[in-house]
Amino acid sequence: MSVLRIAVQKSGRLHDESMELLKDIGISIDNGIDQLKASARNFPVEVFYLRNGDIPQYLKDGVVDAAIIGENVLIEKGEGINVAEKLGFSSCRVCIAVPKTMEYKSIKDLDGKRIATSYPHTVQMYLEEQGIKANLHIINGSVEIAPNIGLADAICDIVSSGSTLFKNNLKEVEMILKSEAVLAVSPILDEEKQAILDKIQFRIKSVLKGRNSKYVLLNAPNDKVNDIISVLPGMKSPTVLPLAEEGWSSIHSVISKNQFWDVIDDLKARGAQGILVCPIEKMVL
Ligand SMILES: Nc1ncnc2c1ncn2[C@@H]1O[C@H](COP(=O)(O)OP(=O)(O)OP(=O)(O)O)[C@@H](O)[C@H]1O
Ligand SMILES: O=P(O)(O)OC[C@H]1O[C@H](OP(=O)(O)OP(=O)(O)O)[C@H](O)[C@@H]1O
Ligand SMILES: [Mg+2]
Q: Do residues 65 and 97 both lie within one domain?
């Protein structure tokens, strides 16, 4: 029987959330990361623990069938590899930054300059699009220090909170791309592996929808129910149930996490009382 081989980062920023996602979709892995490969107990999956930067090549070579990886690494090294699903964690952006003291007006100011980066292909593509020629210095880590030690005039690296740039007296001047963790898939999957992947994707969608939603319960006098449900989306439509107390109802609904606080304010203003908000584990539509 076919087994789908999934790569996850061995250690680093993606590891814990990748393992949590596998657990949430019901894939239990027995052994620890000391072994570089582990089998799932209850699903036709093998997990390979690899370096993030090595994963695109393993996908291309067909050594693994799928992977949880930063989209930025795929853009750098993963030509031809498909993104099956965005996973909603490890959000960051790849940016060009220069010393705060540099007077920067446009990308033209980087013509002929030295740029330190771990993402040479990504920077090169961006510069070519803009008709700029620069000298790239490839460094594997601590890129932000390069201008301070005279190694480069600018850098291109991952930015999230911006605190690493700030600490190194740099300012962000160009955003090349946005990234988050994704489920990447090898372009060569046979039918049986594709069927396993389809199941995994279906489960991931259910978990992500659950993570992005809240279950809301509230009480309201009957004469306010219509006004309240007019601002509630719900999966199909809100549930309205009578309370034991005459003249009152309980309303249940599902709200997207993004709209959550605005909707709650609106509900209170329309007379909702005793509002309860619960997490949703999975949402199957
Ligand atoms: N500061 C950050 N905030 C959010 N996400 C980040 C941040 N830094 C990196 N990432 C994302 O996490 C991924 C893994 O980063 P991490 O630093 O753990 O590994 P790495 O050193 O790039 O790779 P390797 O596993 O090959 O050592 C990156 O490719 C990026 O998608
Ligand atoms: O904008 P911030 O929130 O400060 O995050 C950005 C920093 O995070 C990453 O480094 P990481 O901590 O992964 O170290 P590394 O260079 O050793 O990978 C990235 O390479 C930046 O240096
Ligand atoms: Mg890093």
A: no
For a ligand 2 pocket test, name from 164, 165, 168, 176 the mutation site with the most ligand atoms within 8 angstroms of its C-beta: 164
Reported ipTM: the value is 0.96
Classify burial at 201, counting beta carbons within 10 Å of its beta carbon; exposed 0-12, middle 13-18, buried 19 or more. middle
Ligand 3 centre distance from Cα of residue 162 (Å): 14
Specify if 149 maps to a domain: yes
- For 36-81, how does the pLDDT look when each residue is reduced to its tens digit (9 = 90+)? 889 898 899 999 999 999 999 999 999 999 999 999 999 999 888 9
Residue 36 per-residue DSSP state: S
Pairing of strands 181-185, 135-138: unpaired
Task: Locate the ligand 2 atom nearest the alpha carbon of residue 141 and give its number.
Answer: 16
Q: DSSP letter string over 79-99?
A: TTPEEEEE-S-S-EEEEEEEE
User: From the CB of 160, is ligand 2 less than 6 Å away?
Assistant: yes
- Asked, for residue 145, whether it belongs to a domain, the answer is yes
The reported pTM is: 0.91
- Our mutation pick for probing the ligand 2 site, out of 159, 167, 170, counting the most ligand atoms within 8 A of Cβ, is 159
Ligand 2 contacts CB of residue 32 (under 6 A): no
8: domain range? 4-87+181-210
* Overall domain count for the chain: 3
